[in-house]
Amino acid sequence: MKIKILCLVIFFNFSVYATSNEILNESRIHKNLRCLLCQGQSIADSNSEFAQTLKMVVKDLVKQGKTEDEIYNFLSDKYGDWILYKPKFNYENFLLWSFPYLVLVFGGFIIVFLVKKR
Amino acid sequence: MQNIIKLITVSLLVFILGIFYQSLNRSSNYDTKFLVGNKIADIELSDLQSEKFFTNDDFKNNKYTLINFWASWCAPCRVEHPYLMILSRNKDIKILGINFKDKKINALKFLEELGDPYDYLAKDNNGKQSVNFGIYGIPESILIDSKFNILKKIIGPLNEKDLKEIKEIIKS
Predict the structure, then answer these.
(1) Looking at chain B, which residue has its C-alpha nearest residue A51?
(2) Contact between chains at B134 and A78 (C-beta distance less than 8 A)
(3) What pLDDT was estimated at residue A10?
(4) CATH superfamily of B39-171
(5) Is residue A114 pLDDT above 90, yes or no?
(6) pLDDT surpassing 70 at residue A97
(7) CB contact under 8 A, B136 and A37
(8) Mean pLDDT for chain B?
(9) What is the DSSP letter of A83?
(10) Where exactly are the structural domains of chain B?
(11) pLDDT per residue over B4-31, tens digit each?
């Protein structure tokens, strides 16, 4: 009897853990998807028809076992990179991602130069 | 050394100003016209009036197919309807109407009232299929050829200009 209860508790905890993980995952994805019909809102913040449809599609894709990146790739194929709040790192966005680091290095270089000069 | 730093600083400033200038002159209206030239997603749609299921095989023999997302509750769909009726008389093009988040009874009433331009009538009850086609609002129309290449994407209601452009594509 004790073993049965133990098994039931483990099973219940595992189910709750799996479901909460799925919900967390979906919620993170929603926050990174732009509502194309809204002003500066993610689909997590919007109740528009489009946002609701996308939420359903994301739910289905998560249930199918697709990874976060696979979901982003699927949606950016359909709607372009604009749908993603966090742009992908590719040759088109290379400058976008690397420019802050270039400025940082350049800034450091100037500081070193000015300190040495003093 | 100081000259190099000055040169780099000026170059950076010019670069940043260039980016601002380019961004300010670019249209901020989002559209999915970049999909033109790509292949359409695999078609898997249920018929509005029967248990039939549409797949790519149903459209591969059509020279051109216009995929039109519409609904009876959508006012701009009423505006574009006469243009669809005109297109439906052209033998070189078949029209697939996808009824979007609508009630069947209202959809059929709409067609009874304004005419039925559709050679195929499918449904997308929950809107999920629209994502496969890159749709984000209705009405939207996609013109494809027999190889399922997207030739034209029309966001919003069809108008006189779109009709003319579609006719020109069909002629060529």
Answers:
(1) B136
(2) yes
(3) 64
(4) Glutaredoxin (3.40.30.10)
(5) no
(6) yes
(7) yes
(8) 91
(9) G
(10) 39-171
(11) 878 888 988 998 899 889 888 876 667 7
Sorting pLDDT into bands at 50, 70 and 90, what band is B64? Answer: very high
Look up tokens 């040169």; give the residue: B7
For testing contact with chain B, the best of A41, A55, A78 (most B CBs within 10 A): A78
Interface mutation target, options A53, A72, A77, chain B, most CBs of B under 10 Å: A53
Q: Are residues A69 and A107 in the same domain?
A: no
In this structure, the answer to whether residues A70 and A17 fall within a common structural domain is yes
The pLDDT of residue A20: 57
Q: Are residues A10 and A34 in the same domain?
A: yes
Q: What is the pLDDT of residues A9-57, one digit of tens each?
A: 666 665 555 555 566 688 999 999 999 888 889 999 999 989 999 999 9
Length of chain A: 118
B41 vs A13: which has the higher pLDDT: B41
CATH code at position A38: 1.10.8.640
Residue A61's Cβ-side half-sphere holds a number of Cα atoms within 13 Å equal to 23
Domain that holds residue A115: 93-118
Question: Chain A partners of B127 at a C-beta cutoff of 8 Å?
Answer: 49, 52-53, 56
Q: Are residues A33 and A80 in the same domain?
A: yes
CA distance A83 to A9: 41
Structure tokens at B102: 């609508």
